[in-house]
Each structure stands twice: as C-alpha cells, then as structure tokens.
C-alpha cells in the first residue's frame, strides 16, 4: 500500500471517530419497542411462546448499569448475574459510557420501563 493511501485512510478514520463521538456525546436513549419490534418482524418469537427463559448471554462492552430498572438489578431475581472489568480488574464493571447498558437492555429488558 502506498504512503498516500495510508495517510488518507488514517485521516478518514480520525474524522469518522470525531463524528461518531459528537453524535453520541449527549447519550440520550429512547425505547421504541412498540415501533421497532413490529417493523423488523420480531413479534413472531413471542407469538410462538418464546420468552427467552433459560437463555444465558454474555455481553462484553463498556460495563452495565446494574441499577437500571429495566434490568431488574444484580443477583438472584435480576437480569445481571455477574460482571468483570477486563480493562482494570481492580474496578467494578460499571458503565461510564452507556453503550453496554443499552446493549444489555436490547437483549434482556422487557421494554416496560425507560430511562
């Protein structure tokens, strides 16, 4: 690869990172399950009786807000059964960005609450 192509790629990558950061800066999230579910055709699993019971999923992301009401807390009765900070094992896996909580909510929440 020529040096000009490498420099162009680096500039585009930096600009894209700046744009994404600016778009995500306010961290505003809205739950729109009533619109998005039917739009992509995801009501059929529920119609067939599938509710996710017994399914275990690991999320490797920015952490998770274990106090978020849609995730029903940490431990027995909650949706979050454990966590580990792979970046700094001396710290709790608390979500300081919001992305990990959003991903976990997409996977595990029932959409009854928002926040």
Automatic annotation (TrEMBL):
Ranges of residues in domain Peptidase S8/S53: 52-112
Q: Which Gene3D superfamilies match?
A: Peptidase S8/S53 domain (3.40.50.200)
Transmembrane regions listed in the UniProt entry = 6-25
Establish whether keyword Protease is in the entry. yes
Name the UniProt key words of this record, in alphabetical order: Hydrolase, Membrane, Protease, Serine protease, Transmembrane, Transmembrane helix
A GO biological process held by the record: proteolysis
Q: Tell me which InterPro entries the record gives.
A: Peptidase_S8/S53_dom, Peptidase_S8/S53_dom_sf, Peptidase_S8/S53_subtilisin, Peptidase_S8_Asp-AS, Peptidase_S8_His-AS, Peptidase_S8_subtilisin-rel
Under the GO molecular function aspect, what terms does this record hold?
Answer: serine-type endopeptidase activity
Q: Which PANTHER family does this one have? A: CELL WALL-ASSOCIATED PROTEASE (PTHR43399:SF4), SUBTILISIN-RELATED (PTHR43399)
The family line of this record is: Belongs to the peptidase S8 family.
Q: What is this protein called?
A: Peptidase S8/S53 domain-containing protein
Q: Which organism is it from?
A: marine sediment metagenome
